[in-house]
UniProtKB/TrEMBL annotation, chain A:
<dbReference type="InterPro" id="IPR006059">
    <property type="entry name" value="SBP"/>
</dbReference>
<keyword id="KW-0732">Signal</keyword>
<dbReference type="Pfam" id="PF13416">
    <property type="entry name" value="SBP_bac_8"/>
</dbReference>
<protein>
    <submittedName>
        <fullName>Spermidine/putrescine ABC transporter substrate-binding protein</fullName>
    </submittedName>
</protein>
<feature type="signal peptide">
    <location>
        <begin position="1"/>
        <end position="23"/>
    </location>
</feature>
From TrEMBL, chain B:
<keyword id="KW-0472">Membrane</keyword>
<dbReference type="InterPro" id="IPR035906">
    <property type="entry name" value="MetI-like_sf"/>
</dbReference>
<keyword id="KW-0812">Transmembrane</keyword>
<feature type="domain" description="ABC transmembrane type-1">
    <location>
        <begin position="200"/>
        <end position="408"/>
    </location>
</feature>
<feature type="transmembrane region" description="Helical">
    <location>
        <begin position="34"/>
        <end position="54"/>
    </location>
</feature>
<keyword id="KW-1003">Cell membrane</keyword>
<comment type="similarity">
    <text>Belongs to the binding-protein-dependent transport system permease family. CysTW subfamily.</text>
</comment>
<feature type="transmembrane region" description="Helical">
    <location>
        <begin position="233"/>
        <end position="250"/>
    </location>
</feature>
<feature type="transmembrane region" description="Helical">
    <location>
        <begin position="288"/>
        <end position="309"/>
    </location>
</feature>
Amino acid sequence: MKRINLLLATSAAVSLAAGSAFAADMANEMTIVSWGGAYSASQLNAYHNPYSEKTGVKIINDESSPEAVAKLRAMKEANNLTWDLVDVEAADAIRLCDEGLAMEIDADTQLADAPDGTKAKDDFGDLMVSDCFIPQIVFSTTFGYRKDMVPAGTEPPTGACDVFDLQKYPGKRALNKQPVANMEWALLCDGVAYEDVYDTLETDEGVARAFAKLDTIKDQTIWWTASAQPVQLLADGEIFMGSAYNGRLFAMIEEQKQPVGMAWDWQMFDIDGWVVPAGLPEDRLARVMDYLYFATDTQRLADQAKYISYGPARKSSAPLVGKHATLGIEMAPHMPTDPNNAKHTFVNNYTWWADYRDDLDAKFQAWLAN
Amino acid sequence: MTEATTQPGRVLAADGTPLKRSLARALRMQKIRALMLVAPLLIFVLVTFIAPIADMLFRSIENQVVKDTIPRTVEALDSWDPHSTELPPEAVFAALQADLVEAVDQKTHTRLGSRLNYEYSGAASLLRKTGRGVEKMKAPYQEAFLKVDKDWGDLELWRTLYIYSPAYTNGYFLNAVDLKKGIDGPEARPENEQIYILLFKRTMFMSLVITFSCIMLGYPVAWILANIRARTANLLMILVLLPFWTSLLVRTSAWKVMLQQEGVINETLVWLGLVADNDRLILINNQFGTIVAMTHILLPFMILPMYSVMKTIPPSYLRAAKSLGATNWTAFWRVYFPQSVPGIGAGSILVFILAIGYYITPEIVGGTDGTFISNRIAYHISKSLNWGLGAALGAILLGAVLLLYYVYDKIVGIDNVKLGG
């Protein structure tokens, strides 16, 4: 008995010492890179502020995510890593992981379990598209349309395929100036079965078929490059319908009360999440992992949905999604993952795009230019 | 007897050393002092400007990643004939296995994958996938590799590996001019992938149009500024400089508001009845929009050098010409204009060189046919991470500008350029 007590006491002392040594070895400041705007604000409210309150750590917000891939590489080459955690899209995470610029993370041991004890890897499920990537939110590229420009006596558009129907819905369209999503929609709306889309795109005939479909609306399309553009074009009445990120459309419809409706069918799912730059010094790495454990748990991910209409990446977070923090409306129906919105969804095949992006991008740009 | 008399023709300084040497020493001291004075700037320019550019340009030929990641394979592959219709021998596969085991250990195999993926779509995931089980592979290796993925049996993949195994390559430059590095030298790219030559031509053409519009619009303004009362000129000068001080993005966005179909110009035209409501003019998201916006943005760079040159042309010359019987036009064309050419030259070089590298404005208002080569360079630097291709495109652009500068020097003469009086 005595011996057991002694053993317990020692182990407690050791773990206590280890614990305090651990805390002392963590950096007191961290730079987190994200996208800015409403999205950064939602992270600030859901993650950064609670974490700072809990630990007293100062979090510096850098809004460089749009050029994160190139900057991380430049930092690595200059051997001067100033970022601790970076918010990127899944496709970029794969690239960063391949280039050895992001660190591999074992979700099961380094991230929190779900409240019911499910391991993190199972909780995130298919969304963990790369060993370096910790998913945060699911967003979608979907369509918004001007309600006041729907021709009289016509049903309003319901989804991506209506963008190709110039007879029924005349007027300008806006699409993202990149092959991703547009090529898939073109094939899908041309009658290719969902499961055959990527196989078809691997062939020259498939690519030609997609471009032929896009050709039918080419001279009616404005191509956007920044996510604020399609929303602005809709607000100005420059276009009848356009693809945009669902969170931007939500803000436009619910916060700014613009006469715009959503056409959810065949929305393109995409994931956004964290990567940790490879080669962080130990104290900063310890701090980042501590932050990640906190910021990617079930409750925190559900909290973020109070501030922006993007779905939490953990399955266990979904039931916890509540009302919008300031508007007071129920957020669940505005999530891309809501069953009413997700009748037909398209899941972006990141690994496929990582392989074919360069090739198809060259073809896409050549198609655009000619 | 003094030395001077023994060596006739040598003049001595006061301290007895030959004057020539003494003078050279004094001059050398002066040169060193001058060099010391400019040294901070020189070093600054070298470190922050020349070195990074040289480093970036070097990437356009550098290709060490293949050789560094799979050295044994590269060596073994050397004896393989890329024209043959047979896969490389077992020894190559064995070498590849050994190389990949090491590469996986250092996590460099995926870097090789992304490098090869620029030339062979699918290489990225092929290497990622192969890396997972490569350690457990057993001989015969060819079979083992083919079992992981049948792409290892694709001759094109092996040819790509063969072509890109040297440490230096001209492959990026060939890609940058719509060609492809093949086993027998450059090959043409399929037509649906050709884009860069078109963009280079368009960039040159549009920059020339923009430069020309700036001359046409800027010349009268500079003339007025140089020939009115100083106080009014200063006031007008603020109007020229005001857009100069406004953010580029704000100016570009303002043009969007002006030119779009529901924009100010179209609204006014519809209101005046000049344009039908359902047939509004398309003024933006095309070449026209880019030219308008960029001409506006670059105009001050044209007006300022022109103004400072015109300021130095004495008005009495024009009066003299007229008093000698010249018409207004002759006096302007034969007397005033030739003297203002150095200003036009300086302005044109500034505007043209700035225009050729512009990318924010074409990105925002360029649509599909108004984008420049710099938009592609930006894409390769920040999105695809294909810095080699980006560097090659940049090097070609730099070469083109230097060539044009040379031609300009031959035709107009670079001495005939003035930024001020």
